[in-house]
Amino acid sequence: MSQTEPSHDTEDPNLRALLRQNRPAPALPPGFENAVWRRIESAEAKTSEMNWVEAVAAWLLRPRLAVAAAMLLVIAGASLGVAEGSRSADELAKERYLNSVSPPELRR
Asked: Which of 19, 41, 49, 84 lies 20 to 30 Å from 73, alpha-carbon distance?
């Protein structure tokens, strides 16, 4: 910067004071603060009124919990499948045994 160029130093305290004095500060409308607090309270009330389904869904949509819930459902489904398969296998074994010992034609 040469000596002939004007300095645009924004750290000048006199310049800052002058700029602060000339900056217009609009007056807030009457009841502005009350309106803000009413909006905050209504927003909080809406979030507290969330029904249980939304709360559970929001809880389960967290990645760790979603994976854990999916694994739990897979394990529960596999367990039920094994139990049902075992029951079906027992019934089939009983039916085959009865057919081998006493053919259906003789059981009528």
From this structure: 49
The pTM for the full model equals 0.39
Buried b (16+ CB within 10 A) or exposed e, 59-90: eeeeeeeeeeeeeeeeeeeeeeeeeeeeeeee
CB 46 within 8 A of CB 55: no
Q: How does pLDDT run across 59-105, given as a tens digit for each residue? A: 878 888 889 889 999 999 999 999 999 999 999 999 899 888 887 77
User: What is d(CA 40, CA 34) in angstroms, rounded to the nearest whole number?
Assistant: 10
Unique residue bearing structure tokens 């507290």: 48
Going by C-beta distance under 8 Å and a sequence separation of 6 or more, which residues neighbour residue 9?
Answer: 15
- Is residue 66 within 8 Å of 60, Cβ to Cβ? yes
